[in-house]
Amino acid sequence: SAVISQKPSRDICQRGTSLTIQCQVDSQVTMMFWYRQQPGQSLTLIATANQGSEATYESGFVIDKFPISRPNLTFSTLTVSNMSPEDSSIYLCSVGSLAGGITVEQFFGPGTRLTVL
Amino acid sequence: AQSVTQPDIHITVSEGASLELRCNYSYGATPYLFWYVQSPGQGLQLLLKYFSGDTLVQGIKGFEAEFKRSQSSFNLRKPSVHWSDAAEYFCAVGPPRGGYNKLIFGAGTRLAVHP
Description:
Chain A has 117 residues and is mainly β. Chain A has no helices and 11 strands.
């Protein structure tokens, strides 16, 4: 399995500001995913990030609010823009492992705990 | 619609007791099935997975899960719980085919272990 790190591990931000979260993987991966876990809730997929193409966003998430970059096969960033207290969540990146061209499982980073005041 | 149901939001067991966490799914076909564990302040760790074949799968930390197609269930079990098993457990399903594996997560079951 891949080793995934995220920065920052946690942050406290003021409303109206933006935060960029970094996700670094120790091996090259095709598929990277960004999830949100709101307090006491399960995980919700924000978007899928492929290297060299635009991220694919899930219903309810838009690029203006959550811009994503994927400059290479080991790195991605998620920006939470114009934050409000409702954005307080844990944000997790994950990577998919491939078998026969199909992503068969995902491995998760440690998460970034964001608090917006 | 595809969905995952974990009926038990919170479970408390005594250390050494057996454990079963329930997971039911609604899906158009047999999906890939996963159990993840999230310890406090941590990310998610994959416990085990089912793709096909033997319906009883073994995972890490002494966990196992059984896929029952007739019941659309994938329940997680452990014969003897340790205090370190206290965590949140998530069942997830993914599409059986396709270019990428979008995971749909259940709401989670929080496990507390009494000494």
